């Protein structure tokens, strides 16, 4: 079975796939990198004599009220928060692809109605409310968080995949392949998957700031990682208490947060430009 | 046409802005300017029966008064009662009520009904015995007929008697030389039956009527609004209007104070950073800030501690933790400016009291206790959950303790919740240990010991759930003698035995620092940290 | 005769359309109720035990368990739950023993005021920024970069940063008369913190919409026939992008709710955010379910209204475009 595309489009599609794979890998690797660079002792050891020192050459982000290095705490916090983000994306991406593809291929029939109904249901409540409520009932800790967040953010991506799928399946190329006898699975893998993954990844990447926000608000409610484990949002909120006397406590973790979000946005923009896909 | 529309739009904006600015500025220029006090936590209820935390007590003390109260010199003086006498065996106490004490105005009360009567006192004390009331436990252990009334075997409390129109007699089941001090907290406030019946569950939440210097006007969003009670029996010609406003964020509260939108606030340690400096043992505002902020600092009867849920946590583990704690590090981390190390619950500022508790880190003793624990529970790693709240530096203290216990092999799990949620968990007994603080409403060690460490005070204020018959008996014996010095010495013995039993780890006590606007004067506090505002006024 | 039958058919058609159109939102509402109901089953442990605490006696727990109906079959419990919701008895709070609807009502105003102010600000900001860019096209690219920066940040960072800046501005007043009495103007300034992030998103979306309109034939026709800048802006650009703006706002409302909670925390407003925090930490399931249900109903209504009205708005917009093209003599 020879499902060949014109050579230009092949290289472009392959490039796109590589870009997407690279982005996802980066998202998974970066937390580990952060953890590698962070010094656990500096992050957790309490040295009261060095409390609340301003940023300097030795302490890039200064120290907090218990003398712990804010730079290392930010790195550890970023690693923890990003792991949640990466985990949620890793769960949401395949779910959205599969469910969206099913909905798109059976457009107008009962699988589409059921899946669209679930997507609409998840859109009726703000994501953070659902995640926070379930987290409150299940208890604090980061174990269940990627599943919770992943379990709600697949919805917008799935909706996108559904529209794209129905559009692609109408295309001449797919109809030709089907006429030539390709099975639905082959069509999915060779035609649909490469074309639909980039837009889905992009829309999930655009949701990363919101996931980080959910992580922060969980810490606000006391449902985040248990002390002394820092989380990026938690560091920011802790720092706000001492905003007057020690602005670096909130400001510096914020810088890392902004850098991460900007980086993810940049990646998403690059992929979107390649796909010629307008921002939502 | 379009130009007219634009012009009208701009006019509306300008008028709206002017109206807004005028409205928000006019309040601060009025002569009956309100005294706004900033709180770090909200107060859901200040019903005398439910004064279970320090913020509620501070607010309750403005509205409700009992027969006695603590004045600004920390002496027990008469509030609603003018004088009292007791039988030689301290088992019968007769209080003579002050003439001319009135309740705050209320729809159900006509002018005559607003006078305080002996029946009101009897009603209030009977009400204090209801289930879940904070004073129920301590009162029922002392008042004759209380237990029978609580169990429904008697229609009224036999130990409460109206002797005459202005005298009430209390009969006790045991000698209590300190009874007037015992009932000096606002939790023993006198209320009026008709008002309470009419208000039902709203009493203390959206309406409240007492005899105190300020009457409750309304609850507005995050504020509790009070008005000076013009017919208050005590002297006072101070501010007309008082507001307690909840602003949880320290940074915002400080900014509001500097801008003049708050007039006073209880300072927390993070707020003092950069604002005050220690000069010769006392605290002083830095030059640069002196224009916007003034301070007052005074010793308070308080203690900060890690309380164990005594029946739940293993004794060896408790002892190990108590011996392993390094108080100096905790103080440097949490309260470097206002903290003083203390290993017992009795405030160091109690007059005439010398504690027998010796404190200091004993790592060998801690390790020995841990070995005993491991022998009894082989294969089980020593582990404890510490509940912390977002006020009073609870979480940083918890983190310091965690880092101190880790080298010994004790694993600490910190769970942070809001203050009200923590109080709720404590009431249900849903915790292993909690980092929290007490502000005592009593100035006498005997009353403090009885209120916080006897079985009848479980679950609040005895949040340790500490119950030991020998301890109960020892504390009861403290009240039988009229010899003050002997009683205090005996109290010291009881305190030492208590601390050795490790129901909690007492960490430190603090001075209270109040920040206020420089144009405010006449604000005083007693050692229970209640504001006494009858003479507060604005400087001209 | 024929016209009467036609009219009757049309009327029946409308009724059927209404019924069919409401099946979808009603089914979502039922789904929401099921979800909320099952939330209480996610909580580990006995709800009666959660209310009374581990120290309560066994018989007290069992009594409460029975009196609250937790031992009845699931279907029966769900049926009672649905009945209570329909009749407005949404239960009582486990912490304060007040009815849930009353608790929510007490805390609703600050959140509502913040939301209203923030929505108005974001729409005004989107329209005015785009107006400025229309008049001064050179401002476009730097503005876009700034907006993209704003969008890339998590909304809570924008909300918190602007809230902290606002507390430094001394002419904003947390005056008791303003906030305490829920005097709505007191929320005017804090709402800016809530509005900034949605404003960035809506400005960008509106700008994209404007760009596509500006390349269209009717716009070029209008400009060619001598419409002034102001007329071009209001009669062509704005009137054709209402639908986009409205839809964008509807999509931003959930983010608005999020930022509102954060701002409420920073300023200690006693709004729904405070209630949510209290019910989450105190495991107050009735209030939590009530908040989720209320939110769900609000968003359902909002989306249903927006979907039907944007369809209506599109028709209106089409008609306006037609009128415009005829008036400018496009039809030649």
Structural class of chain B: alpha+beta
Q: What structural class do you assign from the helix and strand content of chain A?
A: mainly alpha
Tertiary shape of chain B: globular
Classify the helix fraction of chain B into a percent range: 25-40%
The gyration radius over C-alpha positions of chain A equals 22 Å
The greatest interface here is: A-C, 41 and 47 residues
Give the oligomeric state: heterotrimer
% residues in beta strands of chain A:
under 5%
CATH superfamily membership of the largest domain in chain B, which one?
A: Dipeptide-binding Protein, Domain 3
Largest sheet of chain A: none
Give an overview of the whole structure.
The complex is a heterotrimer of chains A (280), B (540) and C (332). With 280 residues, chain A is an all-alpha fold. Chain A has helices spanning 7-37, 40-44, 70-105, 110-124, 127-138, 145-170, 172-179, 184-206, 208-220, 232-241, 248-275. In chain A, helix 6 (145-170) packs across helix 8. Chain B has 540 residues and is α+β, with helices and mostly antiparallel strands. Chain B has 2 domains: 41-245, 3-Layer(aba) Sandwich (D-Maltodextrin-Binding Protein, domain 2), CATH 3.40.190; 302-510, Dipeptide-binding Protein, Domain 3 (Dipeptide-binding Protein, domain 3, Roll). Chain B is built from 17 helices and 24 strands. In chain B, the strands form 6 sheets. In chain B, strands 1, 8, 9, 10, 11, 14, 15, 16, 17, 18, 19 and 20 form a 12-stranded mixed beta sheet that branches. In chain B, strands 4-5-7-6 form a 4-stranded antiparallel beta sheet, with helices on one face. In chain B, helix 11 (327-334) packs antiparallel against helix 13 (394-405) and helix 15 (445-453) packs antiparallel against helix 16. The longest helix of chain B has 28 residues, at 2-29. Chain C is 79% helix and 0% strand. Chain C has helices spanning 2-42, 47-52, 58-67, 74-86, 100-135, 140-152, 155-168, 176-179, 190-214, 217-224, 229-267, 272-281, 285-327.
């Amino acid at each position: 079975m020879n499902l060949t595309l014109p050579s230009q489009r092949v290289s472009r599609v392959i490039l796109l796939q590589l870009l997407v794979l690279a982005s996802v890998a980066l998202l998974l690797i970066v937390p580990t990198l952060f953890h590698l660079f962070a010094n656990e002792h500096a992050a957790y050891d309490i040295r009261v004599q060095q409390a609340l020192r301003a940023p300097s050459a030795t302490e890039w982000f200064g120290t907090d009220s218990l003398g712990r290095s804010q730079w290392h705490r930010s790195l550890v916090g970023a690693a923890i928060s990003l792991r949640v983000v990466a985990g949620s994306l890793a769960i949401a991406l395949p779910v959205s692809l599969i469910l969206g593809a099913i909905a798109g291929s059976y457009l107008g029939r009962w699988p589409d109605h059921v899946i669209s109904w679930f997507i609409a249901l998840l859109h009726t409540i703000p994501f953070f409310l659902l995640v926070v409520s379930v987290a409150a009932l299940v208890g604090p800790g980061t174990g269940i968080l990627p599943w919770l967040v992943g379990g709600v953010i697949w919805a917008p991506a799935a909706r996108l995949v559904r529209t794209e799928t129905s559009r692609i399946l109408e295309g001449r190329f797919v109809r030709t392949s089907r006429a030539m006898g390709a099975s639905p699975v082959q069509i999915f893998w060779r035609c649909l998957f490469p074309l639909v993954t980039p837009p889905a990844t992009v829309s999930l990447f655009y949701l990363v700031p919101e996931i980080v926000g959910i992580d922060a608000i969980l810490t606000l409610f006391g449902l985040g990682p248990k002390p002394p484990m820092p989380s990026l949002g938690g560091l920011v909120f802790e720092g706000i208490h001492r905003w007057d006397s020690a602005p670096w406590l909130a400001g510096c973790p914020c810088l890392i947060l902004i850098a991460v979000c900007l980086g993810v946005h940049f990646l998403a923009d690059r992929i979107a430009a390649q796909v010629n896909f307008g921002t939502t | 046409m379009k130009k007219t529309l634009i012009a009208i739009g701009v006019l509306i904006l300008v008028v709206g802005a002017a109206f807004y600015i005028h409205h928000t500025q006019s309040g601060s220029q009025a002569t009956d300017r309100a005294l706004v006090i900033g709180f770090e936590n909200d107060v859901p209820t200040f019903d005398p029966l439910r004064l279970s935390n320090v913020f509620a007590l501070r607010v309750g003390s403005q509205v409700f008064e009992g027969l006695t109260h603590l004045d600004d010199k920390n002496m027990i003086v008469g509030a609603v009662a003018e004088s009292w006498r007791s039988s030689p065996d301290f088992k019968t106490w007769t209080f003579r009520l002050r003439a001319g004490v009135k309740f705050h105005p209320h729809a159900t009360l006509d002018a005559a009904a607003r006078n305080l009567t002996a029946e009101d006192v009897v009603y209030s004390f009977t009400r204090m015995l209801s289930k879940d009331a904070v004073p129920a436990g301590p009162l029922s252990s002392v008042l004759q007929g209380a237990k029978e009334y609580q169990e429904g075997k008697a229609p009224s409390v036999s130990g409460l008697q109206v002797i005459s129109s202005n005298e009430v007699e209390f009969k006790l089941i045991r000698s209590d030389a300190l009874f007037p001090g015992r009932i000096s907290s606002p939790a023993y406030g006198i209320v009026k039956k008709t008002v309470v019946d009419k208000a039902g569950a709203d009493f203390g939440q959206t309406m409240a009527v007492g005899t105190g210097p300020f009457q409750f006007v309304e609850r507005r969003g995050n504020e509790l609004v009070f008005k000076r009670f013009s017919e208050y029996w005590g002297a006072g010609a101070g501010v007309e209007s008082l507001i307690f406003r909840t602003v949880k964020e320290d940074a915002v509260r400080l900014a509001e104070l500097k801008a003049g939108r708050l007039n006073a606030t209880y300072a927390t340690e993070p707020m003092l950073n950069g604002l005050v400096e220690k000069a010769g043992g006392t605290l002083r505002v830095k030059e640069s800030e002196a224009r916007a902020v003034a301070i007052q600092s005074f010793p308070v009867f308080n203690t900060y501690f890690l309380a164990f849920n005594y029946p739940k946590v293993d004794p060896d583990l408790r002892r190990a933790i108590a011996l392993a704690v390094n108080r100096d590090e905790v103080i440097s981390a949490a309260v470097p400016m206002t903290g003083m190390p203390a290993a017992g619950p009795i405030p160091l500022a109690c007059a005439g009291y010398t504690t027998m508790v010796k404190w200091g880190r004993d790592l060998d003793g801690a390790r020995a206790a841990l070995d005993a624990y491991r022998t009894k529970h082989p294969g089980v790693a020593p582990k404890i959950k510490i509940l912390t709240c977002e006020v009073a530096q609870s979480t940083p203290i918890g983190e310091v303790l965690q880092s101190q216990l880790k080298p010994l092999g004790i694993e600490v799990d910190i769970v942070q919740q809001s203050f009200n949620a923590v109080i709720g968990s404590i009431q249900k007994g849903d915790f292993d240990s909690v980092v929290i603080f007490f502000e005592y409403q009593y100035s006498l060690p005997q009353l403090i010991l009885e209120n916080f460490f006897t079985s009848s005070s479980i679950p609040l204020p005895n949040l340790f759930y500490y119950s030991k018959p020998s301890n109960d008996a020892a504390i009861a014996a403290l009240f039988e003698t009229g010899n003050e010095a002997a009683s205090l010495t005996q109290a010291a013995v009881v305190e030492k035995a208590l601390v050795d039993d490790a129901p909690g780890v007492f960490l430190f006590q603090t001075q209270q620092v109040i920040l206020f606007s420089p144009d405010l004067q006449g604000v005083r506090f007693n050692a229970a940290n209640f504001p006494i505002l009858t003479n507060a006024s604005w400087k001209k | 005769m024929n016209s009467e039958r036609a009219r009757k058919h049309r009327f029946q058609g409308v009724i059927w359309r209404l019924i069919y159109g409401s099946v979808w939102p009603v089914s979502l509402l039922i789904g929401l109720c099921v979800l909320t109901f099952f939330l209480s089953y996610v909580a580990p442990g006995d709800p009666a035990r959660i209310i009374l605490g581990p120290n309560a006696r066994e018989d007290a727990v069992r009594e409460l368990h029975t009196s609250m109906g937790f031992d009845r079959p699931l279907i029966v419990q769900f049926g009672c739950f649905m009945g209570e919701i329909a009749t407005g008895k949404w239960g009582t709070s486990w912490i304060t023993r007040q009815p849930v609807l009353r608790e929510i009502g007490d805390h609703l105003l600050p959140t509502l005021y913040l939301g209203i102010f923030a929505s108005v600000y974001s729409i005004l900001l989107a329209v005015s920024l785009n107006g400025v860019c229309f008049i001064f096209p050179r401002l476009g690219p730097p503005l876009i970069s700034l907006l993209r920066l704003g969008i890339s940040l998590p909304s809570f960072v924008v909300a918190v940063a602007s809230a902290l800046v606002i507390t430094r501005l001394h002419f904003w007043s947390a005056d008791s008369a303003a906030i305490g009495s829920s005097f709505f103007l007191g929320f005017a300034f804090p709402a800016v913190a809530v509005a900034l992030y949605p404003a960035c998103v809506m400005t960008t979306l509106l700008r994209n919409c404007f760009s596509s309109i500006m390349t269209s034939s009717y716009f070029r026709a209008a400009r060619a026939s001598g419409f002034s800048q102001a007329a071009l802006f209001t009669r062509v650009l704005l009137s054709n992008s209402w639908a986009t703006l409205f839809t964008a706002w509807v999509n931003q409302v959930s983010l608005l709710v999020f930022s509102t909670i954060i701002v409420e925390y920073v300023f200690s407003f006693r709004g729904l955010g405070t209630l949510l925090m209290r019910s989450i930490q105190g495991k107050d399931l009735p209030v939590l379910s009530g908040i989720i249900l209320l939110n769900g109903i609000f968003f359902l209504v909002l989306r249903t209204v927006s979907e039907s009205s944007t369809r209506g708005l599109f028709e209106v917009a089409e008609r306006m475009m037609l009128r415009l093209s005829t008036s400018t003599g496009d039809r030649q």
